[in-house]
Amino acid sequence: MAEEVSATAASKEEWLDVLSTGSLMKKVLQAGEGRETRPQKGDLVTISARTLLKGQEIENLPSYSFRVQENEACPAWDMLVAIMELKERALARAASRFDRRPGLAEDAELEYELELLASVPAVAQEDQDVDGLLALHDSKVERGAEWMRKESFDFALNCYRRGLEVVEHALERKIEDESQRAKLETRREKVIANIAVVQTKLGLFARNIELCTTALEEFPANVKLIYQLARAHLELNTPDAALAAIARVAPDHPSRGDFDALQKQAQAKARANAKTEKDLYKRMSAGLAVVKAAHAATDAD
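RE: above sequence
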Protein backbone atom coordinates (compact mmCIF):
# COMPACT_ATOMS: atom_id res chain seq x y z
CA MET A 1 0.00 0.00 0.00
CA ALA A 2 1.13 3.54 -0.69
CA GLU A 3 0.75 4.80 2.86
CA GLU A 4 2.31 2.96 5.77
CA VAL A 5 0.52 3.36 9.09
CA SER A 6 1.32 1.58 12.33
CA ALA A 7 -1.77 0.07 13.93
CA THR A 8 -0.33 0.71 17.38
CA ALA A 9 -0.22 4.47 16.69
CA ALA A 10 -3.96 4.79 16.08
CA SER A 11 -6.21 6.05 18.84
CA LYS A 12 -8.43 3.44 20.48
CA GLU A 13 -11.58 5.52 19.89
CA GLU A 14 -11.27 4.97 16.13
CA TRP A 15 -11.09 1.19 16.31
CA LEU A 16 -14.01 -1.18 15.78
CA ASP A 17 -13.95 -4.20 18.09
CA VAL A 18 -15.25 -6.73 15.56
CA LEU A 19 -15.90 -9.59 18.01
CA SER A 20 -16.30 -7.49 21.18
CA THR A 21 -13.36 -9.37 22.69
CA GLY A 22 -10.44 -7.15 21.69
CA SER A 23 -8.97 -10.00 19.64
CA LEU A 24 -9.93 -8.61 16.22
CA MET A 25 -9.86 -4.85 15.70
CA LYS A 26 -10.46 -2.76 12.56
CA LYS A 27 -9.96 0.89 11.68
CA VAL A 28 -11.02 2.53 8.40
CA LEU A 29 -8.25 4.53 6.71
CA GLN A 30 -10.14 5.35 3.53
CA ALA A 31 -13.89 5.02 3.14
CA GLY A 32 -15.22 2.76 0.43
CA GLU A 33 -18.08 3.05 -2.04
CA GLY A 34 -20.96 2.35 0.34
CA ARG A 35 -22.36 -0.46 2.50
CA GLU A 36 -24.17 -1.93 -0.49
CA THR A 37 -20.76 -2.83 -1.97
CA ARG A 38 -19.82 -5.09 0.95
CA PRO A 39 -19.16 -8.68 -0.21
CA GLN A 40 -21.61 -11.46 0.51
CA LYS A 41 -20.92 -15.12 1.30
CA GLY A 42 -19.40 -16.86 -1.70
CA ASP A 43 -18.39 -13.66 -3.53
CA LEU A 44 -14.95 -13.74 -5.12
CA VAL A 45 -12.96 -10.85 -3.66
CA THR A 46 -9.50 -9.51 -4.44
CA ILE A 47 -7.58 -7.66 -1.76
CA SER A 48 -4.15 -6.24 -1.22
CA ALA A 49 -2.73 -7.24 2.13
CA ARG A 50 0.35 -6.29 4.09
CA THR A 51 1.05 -8.24 7.28
CA LEU A 52 3.28 -7.10 10.13
CA LEU A 53 4.49 -8.85 13.27
CA LYS A 54 6.04 -6.71 15.99
CA GLY A 55 6.27 -3.88 13.49
CA GLN A 56 8.18 -5.95 10.92
CA GLU A 57 6.66 -6.82 7.57
CA ILE A 58 6.36 -10.58 7.12
CA GLU A 59 4.16 -10.66 4.01
CA ASN A 60 3.10 -8.27 1.28
CA LEU A 61 0.49 -9.40 -1.24
CA PRO A 62 -0.42 -6.82 -3.91
CA SER A 63 -3.29 -9.06 -5.05
CA TYR A 64 -4.89 -12.03 -3.30
CA SER A 65 -8.25 -13.55 -4.24
CA PHE A 66 -10.59 -15.78 -2.26
CA ARG A 67 -14.27 -16.57 -1.83
CA VAL A 68 -15.78 -14.99 1.25
CA GLN A 69 -16.69 -17.21 4.21
CA GLU A 70 -15.72 -20.44 2.47
CA ASN A 71 -12.52 -21.13 4.46
CA GLU A 72 -10.32 -19.98 1.59
CA ALA A 73 -8.61 -17.21 3.59
CA CYS A 74 -7.44 -16.91 7.16
CA PRO A 75 -10.31 -16.23 9.60
CA ALA A 76 -9.12 -12.66 10.22
CA TRP A 77 -9.34 -11.68 6.54
CA ASP A 78 -12.58 -13.59 6.06
CA MET A 79 -14.29 -11.68 8.87
CA LEU A 80 -12.74 -8.30 8.07
CA VAL A 81 -13.52 -8.32 4.35
CA ALA A 82 -17.17 -9.11 5.09
CA ILE A 83 -17.46 -5.69 6.76
CA MET A 84 -15.39 -3.74 4.23
CA GLU A 85 -16.72 -1.69 1.35
CA LEU A 86 -15.33 -1.80 -2.17
CA LYS A 87 -12.14 0.33 -2.42
CA GLU A 88 -12.02 0.70 1.35
CA ARG A 89 -8.60 0.72 3.02
CA ALA A 90 -8.33 -0.42 6.59
CA LEU A 91 -5.95 -1.28 9.38
CA ALA A 92 -6.55 -4.32 11.54
CA ARG A 93 -5.09 -6.12 14.52
CA ALA A 94 -5.71 -9.82 15.13
CA ALA A 95 -4.75 -12.48 17.63
CA SER A 96 -2.59 -15.20 16.10
CA ARG A 97 -5.39 -17.78 16.24
CA PHE A 98 -7.22 -15.81 13.54
CA ASP A 99 -4.27 -15.90 11.15
CA ARG A 100 -3.43 -19.61 10.84
CA ARG A 101 0.16 -18.85 9.88
CA PRO A 102 2.52 -21.64 11.07
CA GLY A 103 5.14 -20.84 13.71
CA LEU A 104 3.29 -17.99 15.43
CA ALA A 105 3.35 -17.74 19.21
CA GLU A 106 -0.06 -18.18 20.85
CA ASP A 107 0.09 -14.68 22.30
CA ALA A 108 1.29 -13.02 19.07
CA GLU A 109 -0.68 -10.16 17.58
CA LEU A 110 -0.56 -9.39 13.88
CA GLU A 111 -1.23 -6.12 12.09
CA TYR A 112 -2.78 -5.92 8.63
CA GLU A 113 -3.10 -3.17 6.06
CA LEU A 114 -5.95 -4.22 3.76
CA GLU A 115 -7.70 -2.83 0.72
CA LEU A 116 -10.72 -4.36 -0.97
CA LEU A 117 -9.82 -4.04 -4.64
CA ALA A 118 -12.64 -5.99 -6.29
CA SER A 119 -15.66 -8.11 -5.51
CA VAL A 120 -17.44 -10.42 -7.96
CA PRO A 121 -20.86 -11.75 -6.93
CA ALA A 122 -21.12 -15.49 -6.40
CA VAL A 123 -22.69 -17.54 -9.17
CA ALA A 124 -24.93 -20.40 -8.05
CA GLN A 125 -23.68 -23.85 -9.03
CA GLU A 126 -26.90 -24.44 -10.94
CA ASP A 127 -26.11 -21.45 -13.16
CA GLN A 128 -22.55 -22.51 -14.01
CA ASP A 129 -21.56 -24.65 -16.95
CA VAL A 130 -19.26 -27.65 -16.53
CA ASP A 131 -16.13 -25.65 -17.33
CA GLY A 132 -17.11 -23.15 -14.64
CA LEU A 133 -17.59 -25.95 -12.13
CA LEU A 134 -14.23 -27.44 -13.08
CA ALA A 135 -12.58 -24.07 -12.43
CA LEU A 136 -14.37 -23.75 -9.09
CA HIS A 137 -13.28 -27.24 -8.10
CA ASP A 138 -9.69 -26.52 -9.06
CA SER A 139 -9.65 -23.32 -7.01
CA LYS A 140 -10.91 -25.20 -3.95
CA VAL A 141 -8.23 -27.87 -4.36
CA GLU A 142 -5.50 -25.25 -4.80
CA ARG A 143 -6.61 -23.48 -1.63
CA GLY A 144 -6.77 -26.82 0.19
CA ALA A 145 -3.16 -27.46 -0.81
CA GLU A 146 -2.23 -24.02 0.49
CA TRP A 147 -3.79 -24.83 3.88
CA MET A 148 -1.91 -28.14 3.90
CA ARG A 149 1.37 -26.28 3.51
CA LYS A 150 0.36 -24.07 6.43
CA GLU A 151 -0.60 -27.18 8.44
CA SER A 152 -4.15 -25.89 8.91
CA PHE A 153 -5.59 -29.32 8.24
CA ASP A 154 -9.18 -28.56 9.26
CA PHE A 155 -9.34 -25.71 6.73
CA ALA A 156 -7.73 -27.93 4.09
CA LEU A 157 -10.35 -30.60 4.73
CA ASN A 158 -13.17 -28.08 4.32
CA CYS A 159 -11.75 -26.89 0.99
CA TYR A 160 -11.25 -30.42 -0.34
CA ARG A 161 -14.74 -31.45 0.72
CA ARG A 162 -16.18 -28.40 -1.02
CA GLY A 163 -14.20 -29.31 -4.14
CA LEU A 164 -15.67 -32.82 -4.00
CA GLU A 165 -19.20 -31.43 -3.68
CA VAL A 166 -18.68 -29.25 -6.75
CA VAL A 167 -17.35 -32.04 -8.97
CA GLU A 168 -20.05 -34.47 -7.84
CA HIS A 169 -22.68 -31.83 -8.60
CA ALA A 170 -21.23 -31.51 -12.10
CA LEU A 171 -21.26 -35.29 -12.62
CA GLU A 172 -25.00 -35.38 -11.87
CA ARG A 173 -25.59 -33.50 -15.10
CA LYS A 174 -26.06 -35.06 -18.50
CA ILE A 175 -22.62 -34.69 -20.08
CA GLU A 176 -22.28 -35.77 -23.68
CA ASP A 177 -18.62 -34.80 -24.00
CA GLU A 178 -16.77 -37.89 -22.76
CA SER A 179 -13.48 -36.03 -22.37
CA GLN A 180 -15.19 -33.55 -20.06
CA ARG A 181 -16.70 -36.36 -17.99
CA ALA A 182 -13.29 -38.02 -17.80
CA LYS A 183 -11.79 -34.78 -16.44
CA LEU A 184 -14.46 -34.67 -13.75
CA GLU A 185 -13.94 -38.31 -12.78
CA THR A 186 -10.17 -37.82 -12.57
CA ARG A 187 -10.58 -34.78 -10.34
CA ARG A 188 -13.07 -36.63 -8.16
CA GLU A 189 -10.64 -39.52 -7.59
CA LYS A 190 -7.78 -37.15 -6.76
CA VAL A 191 -9.74 -35.01 -4.32
CA ILE A 192 -11.07 -38.07 -2.47
CA ALA A 193 -7.47 -39.21 -2.04
CA ASN A 194 -6.55 -35.72 -0.79
CA ILE A 195 -9.37 -35.91 1.76
CA ALA A 196 -7.99 -39.24 2.97
CA VAL A 197 -4.54 -37.70 3.49
CA VAL A 198 -5.95 -34.79 5.49
CA GLN A 199 -8.11 -37.08 7.63
CA THR A 200 -4.96 -39.03 8.52
CA LYS A 201 -3.34 -35.75 9.60
CA LEU A 202 -6.38 -35.04 11.78
CA GLY A 203 -6.40 -38.54 13.28
CA LEU A 204 -9.79 -39.41 11.75
CA PHE A 205 -8.83 -43.03 11.19
CA ALA A 206 -12.24 -44.70 11.50
CA ARG A 207 -13.66 -42.17 9.06
CA ASN A 208 -10.77 -42.90 6.71
CA ILE A 209 -11.42 -46.63 6.73
CA GLU A 210 -14.99 -45.94 5.64
CA LEU A 211 -13.94 -43.42 2.99
CA CYS A 212 -11.09 -45.47 1.51
CA THR A 213 -12.99 -48.76 1.53
CA THR A 214 -15.85 -47.20 -0.41
CA ALA A 215 -13.59 -45.26 -2.79
CA LEU A 216 -11.44 -48.30 -3.58
CA GLU A 217 -14.50 -50.07 -4.93
CA GLU A 218 -14.44 -47.45 -7.70
CA PHE A 219 -10.70 -46.84 -7.87
CA PRO A 220 -9.06 -50.15 -6.88
CA ALA A 221 -5.62 -49.19 -8.19
CA ASN A 222 -5.31 -45.88 -6.31
CA VAL A 223 -2.21 -46.43 -4.15
CA LYS A 224 -2.75 -43.25 -2.15
CA LEU A 225 -6.11 -44.58 -0.98
CA ILE A 226 -4.63 -48.01 -0.27
CA TYR A 227 -1.84 -46.46 1.79
CA GLN A 228 -4.23 -44.33 3.84
CA LEU A 229 -6.47 -47.36 4.41
CA ALA A 230 -3.52 -49.45 5.63
CA ARG A 231 -2.31 -46.58 7.81
CA ALA A 232 -5.75 -46.17 9.39
CA HIS A 233 -5.99 -49.89 10.21
CA LEU A 234 -2.52 -49.78 11.71
CA GLU A 235 -3.37 -46.77 13.87
CA LEU A 236 -6.53 -48.51 15.09
CA ASN A 237 -4.54 -51.65 15.96
CA THR A 238 -5.98 -53.93 13.29
CA PRO A 239 -2.68 -54.93 11.66
CA ASP A 240 -4.09 -57.94 9.82
CA ALA A 241 -6.45 -55.62 7.92
CA ALA A 242 -3.51 -53.28 7.27
CA LEU A 243 -1.47 -56.17 5.82
CA ALA A 244 -4.41 -57.19 3.64
CA ALA A 245 -4.56 -53.66 2.23
CA ILE A 246 -0.79 -53.56 1.61
CA ALA A 247 -0.99 -56.87 -0.25
CA ARG A 248 -3.04 -55.10 -2.92
CA VAL A 249 0.07 -53.24 -4.11
CA ALA A 250 2.32 -55.09 -6.54
CA PRO A 251 5.90 -55.80 -5.36
CA ASP A 252 7.34 -53.87 -8.31
CA HIS A 253 5.15 -50.77 -7.86
CA PRO A 254 7.18 -47.51 -7.69
CA SER A 255 5.62 -46.68 -4.31
CA ARG A 256 6.33 -50.11 -2.87
CA GLY A 257 9.11 -48.77 -0.65
CA ASP A 258 6.63 -46.74 1.38
CA PHE A 259 4.40 -49.79 1.70
CA ASP A 260 7.29 -52.02 2.76
CA ALA A 261 8.01 -49.70 5.69
CA LEU A 262 4.34 -49.76 6.66
CA GLN A 263 4.28 -53.53 6.26
CA LYS A 264 7.13 -53.95 8.76
CA GLN A 265 5.21 -51.87 11.29
CA ALA A 266 2.05 -53.90 10.74
CA GLN A 267 3.92 -57.20 11.06
CA ALA A 268 5.55 -56.05 14.31
CA LYS A 269 2.20 -54.97 15.70
CA ALA A 270 0.60 -58.27 14.65
CA ARG A 271 3.33 -60.19 16.50
CA ALA A 272 2.90 -58.00 19.58
CA ASN A 273 -0.87 -58.54 19.52
CA ALA A 274 -0.39 -62.31 19.16
CA LYS A 275 2.00 -62.33 22.12
CA THR A 276 -0.43 -60.29 24.22
CA GLU A 277 -3.25 -62.71 23.40
CA LYS A 278 -1.02 -65.71 24.19
CA ASP A 279 0.04 -64.22 27.54
CA LEU A 280 -3.56 -63.44 28.37
CA TYR A 281 -4.58 -67.02 27.56
CA LYS A 282 -1.80 -68.34 29.81
CA ARG A 283 -2.95 -66.16 32.70
CA MET A 284 -6.54 -67.23 32.20
CA SER A 285 -5.51 -70.90 32.08
CA ALA A 286 -3.41 -70.51 35.22
CA GLY A 287 -6.27 -68.81 37.00
CA LEU A 288 -8.67 -71.54 35.94
CA ALA A 289 -6.25 -74.19 37.23
CA VAL A 290 -6.12 -72.49 40.63
CA VAL A 291 -9.90 -72.38 40.81
CA LYS A 292 -10.16 -76.08 39.89
CA ALA A 293 -7.58 -77.00 42.54
CA ALA A 294 -9.48 -75.02 45.15
CA HIS A 295 -12.71 -76.79 44.26
CA ALA A 296 -10.97 -80.15 44.37
CA ALA A 297 -9.58 -79.39 47.86
CA THR A 298 -13.00 -78.35 49.03
CA ASP A 299 -14.57 -81.56 47.69
CA ALA A 300 -11.88 -83.63 49.43
CA ASP A 301 -12.70 -82.02 52.77
